[in-house]
Amino acid sequence: MDQNVQFAQFERIVQLMEWQRYQEAIREAESYLRDYPEDADGYGILSKIYYLADDYEKAMNWSMEALKIDPENALGWEVRAGTLYVQEKWKEALAAVEEAMAIYPEEGYFYLVAGNIYNQKGKHAKAKEMFQTLLSLEPHEALYLANYSYTVSLLGEKEISREAEQQALENNPNDPEVFMYVAWAADQRGDYESALRYMENAVRLDPGRPQFRTEYLLILQKQFKVYRFFLAPAKILAGIKPIYALLIWFIAWFVFKPLVVVFLVLYIAAHWITKMIVNLKVFGKLFVKA
């Protein structure tokens, strides 16, 4: 078939995917693969559509088909790494990312995923390295700057976090995901008013995304000083190695058991009281289904 026809057909799939018309995009991709069964990008784009539609099993399946035909297929690696990440399979995701980075050392997406994995594992210094490499490749990308701002805030580098946050918002003031990350950064720095304002913007720009609504409600809770007081120990423990955090917890339990019990009871009470106040303020009722 004519290459122009093939290109136009592929572009049609991409356009439908970008319009979030996933079922139509899937049908077009399946038709494309019937015409071009040896094209790895066809399997790759189908895997990405399923990934964006949150069908991770099929996304993984088709990404593997793409990589069978072409072990260096960029779409295949992107979807494989992203799918393992959202499934919280950190070890497998990191292995996939490292293999992909060896093939595409200048592809920013893989450093982004790697940085987020290291943050999830509590290895914030390693995450910082990933984002610094990422920003050396694409210094003006707002989402990367926002991730960097959040990461250095976890390391207590408040001024660097603020600078990266402002640069991210200047470079793209209309990306809801950027607002979510700078909200997390502001929250980590103790700037709860800014965190709330940023999450309000994220929800305004993309009101249908559950994660934004959940984070917004959580930051609303943190406007209450009593709730922040009971969160403080967990925040401190999150900043140290898990083995040390566990050791501190066991020591506190055995030495100060009555106080720990009282603290936990008060924490649970503070959590639910502030949660109900937020629910009443936002939804007009005390209890809301997740």
Report on this structure.
There is one protein chain. This protein has 290 residues and is mostly helical. It has three domains: 1-102, Tetratricopeptide repeat domain (Serine Threonine Protein Phosphatase 5, Tetratricopeptide repeat, Alpha Horseshoe), CATH 1.25.40.10; 124-208, Serine Threonine Protein Phosphatase 5, Tetratricopeptide repeat (Alpha Horseshoe); 224-290, no CATH class. It is built from 16 helices and no strands. It has helices at 3-18, 22-35, 40-52, 56-69, 74-86, 90-103, 108-120, 124-137, 142-154, 158-171, 176-189, 192-205, 210-221, 225-238, 242-255, 257-283. Helix 1 (3-18) runs antiparallel to helix 2, helix 5 packs parallel to helix 7 (108-120) and helix 11 runs antiparallel to helix 12 (192-205). The mean pLDDT is 88.
Summarize the structure.
This protein has helices spanning 3-18, 22-35, 40-52, 56-69, 74-86, 90-103, 108-120, 124-137, 142-154, 158-171, 176-189, 192-205, 210-221, 225-238, 242-255, 257-283.
Ranges where pLDDT stays below 50 over 5 or more residues in a row are none
Tertiary shape:
globular
CATH class of the largest domain: Mainly Alpha
* Main sheet record: none
Cα-based radius of gyration, to the nearest Å:
22 Å
In DSSP terms, counting alpha (H) and pi (I) runs of 4 or more, how many helices? 16
State the separation between the terminal residues, measured CA to CA: 50 Å
